[in-house]
Input
Amino acid sequence: MELINKNNHKISFIASMNISLANAIRRTVVEIPVLAIRECDFYKNDSALYDEMIAQRLGLVPLKNQKLKKGEIIELKMKAKGAEGGIYVMSGELGDMVVFPDMPIVYLDKGQSIEIVARVGMGDGQEHAKFIPGLFYYKNLSKIKINKEGESLIELSKIYPEIFEFKDKLMVKDASKCELDTEDLKNYPGVEITFDNKLVFDIETWGQMSTTDIFLESCKTLKSNLSEVSKLLK
Output
């Protein structure tokens, strides 16, 4: 495996893998248990937004992925009152479980107030998109071959500066950024693109868990699914 880039919210790496296996891991992301707000009880809502609209916003607020038992529910409370000039009620009003406390939920003008009790539980992306921890996608890594005829194609370094660079001759700068094939370069003889079993993986997280954990938990869940199938076949 070759790491390309990693930060708090995204990881990119190259790995040799059968594309069917890669797709199975990607699809299994929706089966990872994730914490989210399931239901909201509204005791007061004088804002311009309907209860359902606020409930949807609250459901999409990423929460720190505590390990709750199946069926276990915890409650979060949100209570706010508008002031002169108006205020924005932020997600942080729900407490310390919120990953991003500065997400705006609703605007309250003077005299308006809101009071909500939200119930939080575990779920997965097969039930609702709010339980999906992030994005997982991949593509084939391009093998770019530049022969003598293509070494003078300085224009490619200007058209695709992330992929090619020109230093006395045309060179590959970063093949992982390439989304072209030979057909795209048919007017530039001397540059050939082929593919093998190397894939470029990109994983982005919404904040409930790290990108590394998303990959590992997806693999773990896929392994568990295969074990269940194996038991059934026996």
